[in-house]
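Co-fold these.
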Amino acid sequence: MKREAVVTGIGVVAPGGIGAAAFWDLLTAGRTATRGITLFDPAGYRSRIAAEVDFDPAAHGLDDHQVARMDRYVQFAAVAVAEALADSAAPLAGVAPWRVGVSMGTAVGATTRLDREYTAVSRGGADWVVDPARTAPHLNLALMPSTLSGEVADLVGARGPVRTVSTGCTSGLDAVGYAAQAIEDDLADVVVAGAAESPIAPIAMACFDAIKATSNSNDDPARASRPFDRDRNGFVMGEGAAVLVLEEASAARRRGARVRCRVAGFANHGNAFHMTGLRREGVEMARAITTALDRARRPATDVDYVNAHGSGTVQNDRHETDAVKRSLGEHARRVPMTSIKSMVGHSLGAIGSIELAACVLAMDTGVVPPTANLSTPDPECDLDYVPMTARERRTDVVLSVGSGFGGFQSAVVLDRGE
Amino acid sequence: MDTVITGLGAVSPAGVGTAAYWAALVEGRTLIAPIPHFDTAGFPVRLGGTVPGFDPHEHLDGRYVVQTDAFSWFAMVAAAEALRDSGADTAADPYSTGVLVCSGAGGVEFGQRELAALCRSGPDHVGPYQSIAWFYAASTGQVSISNGLKGMCGVLVTEEPGMLDALGQSGQELRRGTSAMLVGGSEAPLGSPFSLACQLETGLLSTGEDPGTAYVPFSEEARGYVPAEGGAVAFVEGSSDARARGARVRAVVAGHASTFSGVGSMDPGGEGLLNAALGAMARAGVGPDDVDVVFADAMGTPKADADEAAAIRRLFPRGVAVTAPKTGFGRAYAGAGALDVAAAVLSLEHQVVPPTPHVSDPPVGLDLVVRVARPTPLRTALVLSRGAGGGNSAIVLKHPDHA
Amino acid sequence: MSQSTITIEELVELISTCAGIRTDAASAAARTFEELGVDSLGVLGIVAEIERRIGRKLPGDADMSPSPAALVALVDEGAPASLERL
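Predicted complex below.
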């Protein structure tokens, strides 16, 4: 019998509130969590705004040793894992550790810590040959983004395939896609999947400043992230994590788990064009969507909701609009397509998983979250982006799309099974 | 459907190309030397395996040189060799060929340069390429772009075992309809003093000053490993596609498995490595008597070596030839598994087990090939790898005539 | 003491160091960045380096300059001498 992967639990740490309930409240209310940066002094930066998580690791059960060892993004993941496991109601009971996998995505890993520690060991950048005697503990864990999946594996007791997926801004979709494939291909029975990122640090903000990719609406942070709006001027950096518990479908049903949805199809393609540039036509993203739908054995007309990449750059929004039209055809005009980045910002590698968590909640509740700040649509972006206000709508087949540096275009299809 | 390797490329401390790499392996040449990239006087670790005289301008368009780190240069050069070697026409359908190049720490030298500019002079002094050079996906992106490959693009970060896991992942992708993949792993950690400083806390890097004795796993003098740079890339496709186009099959990827032992744990007891090997052999349909050679992980610490030797003895109660050619040049992080896979493919092809340089005698109970290469009939090779992050992977490669 | 303008020869050098593309003054003067193979990130790096050399910010859309010649003209326009002429 064909093995399938289903989602039985989710956990979210996102700007605006910790936990899936707070996250969903924010999204369905159309509130934005973008604000002036507080995590470091952004004076002198072009973009001084971000969607930050108000986070106290101790309040969420992390002990002193974990706080010292784990970089901020790993701490986010740890909190999201705990919520996802609780939500899934003991998915690991009776499962051999060798059959439990972890698949976590991140684009830039422990940038926050590496940035801070580099400043210390190089005497403010003065010494190219840094002083190794001045290094803080746990720096090797920071150097390796594999630490993210490793820490998650240790938390859940996974001893099967454990990997960090790092395809830039599509990491969060790809990590869940690979996790589903691991279950389908009988490499694991349960995979804890998701992504985490904490890029609100000087070097990450500076490198996006340098290419003018981030919004400089510093005087109006709440309305700075404006996907598909005529007045948008770049993405707003975010941070956070989301974790999905994936189980083999028949085993999940046998144990009486609440099956939230199936990971029905996943695909990605490179555009082989440019590390940051996109061709307007969106051919490769369209191809990723079509391949994911094919693998899900769903016609385009089945899609009830598209969770857009919707980063709020002119280039992305037009590229994505064309890609969705190209892949869904006339149906594209009938399907709501929204960007939650308008509210929680763009948390690079994490956002794909955060968006998948939003898709699961949309299917759960029969509500499609809106695209906030969309008051004056770009005339070249002419689909139904659900401006400003959430909409009640039953969704059974949901498509989530991502696009990232490297030219990567990913698509995941969730449904309620066949 | 079998996954087969029809193209191979390498950039190693032996230089550019698989031919140079194999020549050095068979000889058991010493490629470990003082790290030339910066003054290591203040560091307890001073030896490394670096790619000699590598000038990226000789191999790459200048545009790529300014916008990428050395870890991507190595990946791009190895990918170009693998693609040439495969003889495949990837232009006919760009969507049919994917790319999956594993990374460990990303573009650390490029990143340190930009961090220094930021710290010294402020955010205005961070250049536009930092956003695409430092991150772990840079090599996959640039290999995809420079070769026009629009298939599935992936990046796994599992440290040393990366290539083994990439081969496993590519098999999953090929079963879903992608025709071919360029898969590999590369790392260039030695150009960044900060990167080396970050690693010292593990205590796993050798502080030896003599290239001949600094990295001697499975011996009483074992004192850690020597870090290295480099990488390898393989072109893989389905066996029927390879047959249909008359490609030379260099090896068959018969089975892969991976396990996890805990963050930074180095698999105490060897149970994780044992289970990975058992899983890979089961998926390959081979038993202990079918395997002719094991490419060991060879961490180089007494505990890790003893655990690995115990796992190998349990897997092969009647013995098996074991080798660790990486002792000639060091462990290249995400490039390590890739260079080991390349060594295994070349070994099967030449029917020769390369020696384990610098280790003069095999330990009791382990048929470690030392001193000189051993010509012997080889049908099947098992490659073992442990990652600094805590993962263990194994892959079974078969000679095409014995698949 | 920083310079106030930039010559096409200096720009040729910046195209090499910032974008990795070798060209000469005649080609640089006659062609667009796209024709020379300099992509958007390359132009951003060139503009940032010019700003460091001349010690002042160029207009926000300087990186949209289509060609080296247009960029040289843009730097000239904002130079103190030309401001005095206004």
